[in-house]
Structures are given as structure tokens and as C-alpha cells.
Model the fold of this input.
Amino acid sequence: MERLILKDKSLKNWIIKHRIHFIAWSCFIFWESIIVGLTYGAFGKFGNYVIHYAVNILLFYAHTWLLEKAFSSPRQMIWKIPLFVLLELFIYTFGVLEMDLMIIKYTDLISKDFISTSVRIYKLLWRSSFFMLFSTGYFFLKRYLNERAEKERIEKQRFQMLLDKERTDKELLVSKNAFLKAQINPHLLFNTFEFIHQKIRQHSPEDAQVMVYLSDMMRFAATTEHQEGYIKVNEEITQCQNLIKLHQLTQGQVFIELAFSPDVLGIRLIPLVLLTILENMFKHGNLFDRDNKATIDIYMDGETLKIESRNLPGLVKSEVGFGSGLDNIRTRLDYTYGRAAEMTAGIDDEGFYTLSIAIKENALETAFPDQLQEIIH
Done:
């Protein structure tokens, strides 16, 4: 039932789409059969009209299709068009002639014309030429309309591109203004930090040092936001060291070792990977056990950059932002490096929480062509 409904809808849509053709052929057939018949006082049988108009309509669209094929190959068009025309005239003339003879012999759908074969052939040649000429006009009209529609589409697309460019230019201008305005706030903040540092340095050197570490980390975060999205590993290592010192000044002694090989310092990486790992350790780890120090190691293992961390889980599980930072790292690694980066995390057999990130060097080289010149050997 549903298939029948779909077929009915498809047929209805097809008729609506080609309604101009139905109207044009209806008008032409009415004019030629009724008006001409009334004018000359002669009408044929209904079957005669149905059969021959069906053949003529078929010739009309077949000729249009052959012209489209011929014009699709401009170099071969010169010989294809005459060949197609001759074949159409031959097939139509002798095909209709033989068809009429068969219908007259076995049916009474059409009446027999008492005219010679040569006259009949002449009339068929004229009839086929008439519809082929009619079809040629339709082909060029259709071609003209298609070319005009394509030209309008290209103009519309070009106009839309100009609008998009204008919109992009405006957004870029707004972004530049916003960037210039955004630079004002960090400068005021850093100047304020420096003022506070100078004020408390003589009275409390440790508190003043906190301001130095905090100012340095804030400056790093502000400058990272406006870079191209990548930083050198040594820049983030420096901020990790600042964060460790900051925690030691505010929370007392923490036992964590940050180790790295010299050949990783110049590698450029997406920012805030190391800082997020370290922050996660401070938030969810136990860093006060001297005998079980937390570690972060950054090194090259062959052609792979390795970042590994290991720490005891905290005695009290923190539910604040648990796992969100690591999920963020995983998402950014996958977006930037795809399958060239892997990240695993979990509790090992000794009860330590371990995290491992591996990024293939060829992926880093693809993202940063100048990396090899920047690595510090």
C-alpha cells in the first residue's frame, strides 16, 4: 500500500514538473487535429491520431537527446549531427511506413490512404523534418535557459562570497579591536602584581616570591591564548616548576620530581598538557609521601615523544572537576594529532595512578616543519 502511495506521489510530482510539456503538446494536437480538420473538413480515426502523435512526440525528444550527445563533444559535432539527422529521417520514414502497412493489414485503427508509396515517403520526410526542426528549436531554448540559470547561479554564488568576505573582514576587525582591548587588562594585572610585589618584598620575602610565580604563570597563560596554538615544551616545563614552587610555599613540602631530556625542550606541542597533568596530581594525588614521590617524565623514545606521570592517589577522593582536565587533554590530542597520539591512564599493580601520552615524531614534524631546527640537542 505504501509503495502504491509513493508511486502515485512520484507520478504526480513528475506530471507537475513537466506540466508545461503536457500543456504545449495538448495545444499543438488540438490546433493541428481539430482546427486543421475543421478548416479542411477532414478528420482521421482516433487511433490514427494516437499512434502517429505518439511516434512524433518520441521523435521530438529523441532528436533533442541526440543533439545533447552531439554538442557534448564539440570536435565530433561536425559529423555527428548530419549522421544523426540522416539516421532519424531514415528510421522514421521507413519505420512509420512499415508500421502503417502492418496496422492497416491486421487492424482497422487507421484508414487506408489511396496514395502512392513515393508520395507517402515524401509526406513522412516532411513530417519528420518538421518535428526535428521543432525539436532543434526546443533544444536551443533549453540550452539557453540552462546557461542563463547557471550564470545566475554563479553570480549568486559570487555575490554570496563577497558578502561572506565582507562579513569576515568585519569580524576580523572586531576581533582585532577585541584583542587590543584584551591586552589592556593583563597589563594592568601584571602592573598590579609588580606593585604588590614591591610593597611586600621587604616585609615578607616568601609572600613576594609567590607573587612572582603567580605573575609569571598568568603572563604565560595570557600569551599562550594569543599564540598559534603551540608552544615549546621548555616554556611549559618552566611554568610547571613555578607551580611546584608555588605549592611548596603555600602548602609546605611536596614530593614531586619533574624530569626531562634535553632533546625535548625545543619541541612544539599543544599548550597546557603538562600543566593540566600536574594540576590533576595536586588536586587528586597524595604528594606528601617522601618514600613514594610523584614523577613526571618527558623524553624521546626513538621516534616517539613520551610524557609519563605516576603518583599515589589522594587519601580523600576529590570530586571537584575529577577527570575533566584529562578528558580535555585526550580530546585536544585526538583533534590535533589523530591516531598519531595515544593516551592511557589507570591504576597499576602497585596502587599508583599512572598516565602515559605517546605522540609520533612524524606527526609533530607535520604540524611543525621547523621543529628539527628548534630542538636543543
In short: The domain at 201-374 is CATH 3.30.565.10 (Heat Shock Protein 90).
